[in-house]
Amino acid sequence: MKTILTIAIFLTCLETIAQAVSDNGKWRPLVNQAGYNSGESKRFVCYGAPDGTAFYILKVNGGDKVFEGEILNHEGWFTAFNPDDEGDYIVEVAGHGRSVPFAIGDHLMERISSKLAYDFFVDVRGNVSLQEYDMTKVYGGGPSRDGGAYGLETVFESLLYASNPALFDRWQDELGEGKVPDLIKLILWHADFAYKYRDYNGAVANRHGSLGYVGEPRMSYDYWNTVDQLAVVCAGYHSFLKPYLAEEKYRAYRKACLELWEKYDREKEVRYWTYSTKWVDRGFQEFNEMGNAFGQSVMRNLFMYVSELNEKDGKPDKFLKWAQESAKDIINNWDFNNPRHMWWIRNAEHITPQALALFLLIAPEKAPIGTREKLAAWAVHMKQKTNNSWKYRVHSEDEWAHASTKELGGAPALGGSMFAVAHILKDEQLRQTGWAQVDFTFGVNPVGAHLSNKSKERVAIGGYWDGVENGWPQAYGHGYGQLALTRGTLDGSPLDHHFPRVTTVKNSSVEQGSTDAIGKDSYSTEGWCISNRGWMATVTFSTLGSHSLRVLDEAGNETAAAKPGQTITIALKAALNQDTKARERGWVLIKGEEGFTKLDVVETDNNSGIFTAKYIVPRTAKEKIIEVSYGYWAFAKTTQIHVQK
């Protein structure tokens, strides 16, 4: 059996080699196989193509040349190409052949990725029934198979919903029985799980190590992190969960947080708490992806601050103080040159910059001095580390990636951090590098494959990305996570030896790149729930730079003022365009004297991506300002109408 499996893997890798290399043995142009977002960065890699080599963008149907440019540093950029036609295109590079087809469209990545981002977490639950849930049969205990409470599912699912709520309101037929958005039901399921196991210290099926500080009694389950999962739900109750979450249950969640907060050290960044028996992080490390991420304290205290602002007996200042102290901890101690603060904590790395970014986005006037500057320094560091043709964050001067272990916590999650920080700093170059991480995930990498295995079984259950031809050559679907039939799973990523080395030919200054490693030994060590969490964060934060909200007068000019009785137009640009052949719908919130009301918006035309509605300013309006918004928390796009009496 082992021999048969080895042969199968070898044949799959050979197939990948054939897809990434042209008939003459040179690299083909490697593109984002699904395609690119209109108005965003677009690039491909054609390794070995000399600077100045011409490339062309061709229409698949007809072969017309619609764009041309030149290779620089093995890259071809075509950001300026934003066609109205969403038909398929290919890249052609002289001497290197043609790429696979790809599309260019309005919010294309979000269109094909938003639902899969949370579908994964629907499928990976240890048991769909909490009544029948048995921790002793789930590796790590769950809620996700091969995970623990450190998965922080409610945190990143809630952020996903907050980023584009009208989109997620559409999907209600799987968990929501046609009445509740499936993503909301998933958040509430995970909240119920966290509450049920908030003090569970019993057995789990297995775990690579244990929890607890050095010298203290060991825990087999990281129940301390269940409180983090409840905190964000408490914040969500006051923003978007109230129609779906009973007040009695919310009160129970809040009570648990208040009672357990300091008992579980939730007021500070936790260090040296996770003991690992895995070779990659053996022993006690300062931070660990399986228990205590750097930045968790900022997030949980920030969410409790948001929640407590809404309570008559709330103590928001206490949680704000803890969030500020935790942010100062990051500002003072986050060392970009310490791998245990960066790539070596793998799937936990994305939390640190995203935590500081959320502080600046949710409560900018409350963030400690130095928060923005720390993120600016991180941005410089990342630009230095991704200054290569792959735009891949390298480990060191002589190592691209780890030699032996996957880095699914790298590129797929790094994009989200770059999107968040770029939005704060208004840094277009960093945003472009963020899109390069997305491209890497979709095939602009040395293996030339999407980081998810494209199995027939996944495709059959709607669990794969539209438009992707070549998936990761291997999947380990029956490991701890049992991910074979889990939609949207990421399975593997290039190892150090996959990246071509430039070598100097003897007695010559000519440099050449080897193609020998393409697809060779490209393995997966099994996907993981926290790897997919990082990718979900990238889908979430991508919209920060692309959503907008405007108010237009009768002549179509943007305005900030209107008179009672005047008809104005509210125009929303958001990632709501799922069907290019239909006019779709969304909504915005209008805040008036009686609170918030939803106003439906309709797409102006098929595939326009702009959603509008007419709004008549009430003749009896008592407010001087009417607020219009879309999204929640860090993702809220807000504009004001100044009512002129």
Which value, in Å, is the CA radius of gyration? 25 Å
Number of helices: 15
Mean pLDDT across the residues is: 92
Q: What fraction strand?
A: 5-15%
User: Major sheet, described briefly?
Assistant: 8 strands, mixed
Number of strands: 21
The geometry reads as globular
- Uncertain runs with pLDDT below 50, 5 residues or more? 1-11, 503-520
Strand order of the largest sheet: 14-16-19-18-17-20-21-15
Separation, N- and C-terminal Cα atoms: 81 Å
Instruction: Indicate the structural class.
Output: alpha+beta
Helix amount? 25-40%
What key phrases describe this protein's structure?
single chain; 21 strands; disordered N terminus; alpha+beta
Verbal overview:
With 645 residues, the chain is of the alpha+beta class. The protein contains 15 helices and 21 strands. The chain has an 8-stranded mixed β-sheet.
Summarize, please.
This protein has 15 helices and 21 strands.
Helices and strands in order, then pairings?
Blueprint: H1 2-20, E1 35-37, E2 43-45, E3 54-59, E4 65-70, E5 75-77, E6 89-93, E7 97-98, E8 103-105, H2 108-123, H3 153-163, H4 165-168, H5 182-196, E9 209-211, H6 226-241, H7 247-260, E10 274-276, E11 283-284, H8 296-308, H9 316-333, H10 351-362, H11 371-385, H12 411-425, H13 428-441, H14 456-460, E12 502-504, E13 511-513, H15 529-541, E14 548-552, E15 561-562, E16 567-573, E17 585-592, E18 595-603, E19 610-616, E20 625-630, E21 637-643
Parallel strand pairs: 1-8, 15-21
Antiparallel strand pairs: 2-5, 3-4, 3-6, 6-7, 9-10, 10-11, 12-13, 14-16, 16-19, 17-18, 17-20, 18-19, 20-21
